């Protein structure tokens, strides 16, 4: 079964919840190797999307929701995260197109487009200790699951698990991009906050899909 507008709206609501819940954790992670603004910025951005969900016109698609998130994050989230996540959601929206429902391969394509957008914008590569280190394993897992015939919810579950493993794997890395790279070797031993927020957001996507499937 594909994932429709209900899933997309649930994903945004769950994202706002989970980011608010983990705000302090993200602030702490970013304070260790960055400037400490990641939790605050992400929380402000997702809280700003919530009231706009009520204004979505009838017949809106998952792509419309992703676009709404993109424009809101770009206009409300400062630092590096706003433009990076804004680009991710925008490219994801383009990949989703005007489809009313997204199946496994379509979900994998949305995630791949989002990741490619972040790479293009941030110029980071795998192993640089950035959000890409959560996104790329997530996309690989999603594409593998989709090509094995998994449904959309199972594709998101695979992406979420891989994003968590990827976020954890940033801990020993020495940062080569962003503010954390100024710390050099001292950036090792800390988890990248952007990789952590990526795992939280993809987990929310998966949880929203399980809720849709159970409904
Ligand atoms: Mg920061």
From TrEMBL:
PROSITE patterns: DHAL. Residues 6-207 form the DhaL domain. Keywords: Kinase, Transferase. GO terms for molecular function: glycerone kinase activity. GO terms for biological process: glycerol catabolic process. Coiled coil: none annotated. InterPro entries: DhaK_L_YcgS, DhaL_dom, DhaL_dom_sf, Dihydroxyacetone_Kinase. GO terms for cellular component: cytosol. It comes from the Bacteria. This is Dihydroxyacetone kinase DhaL subunit. It comes from Agromyces ramosus.
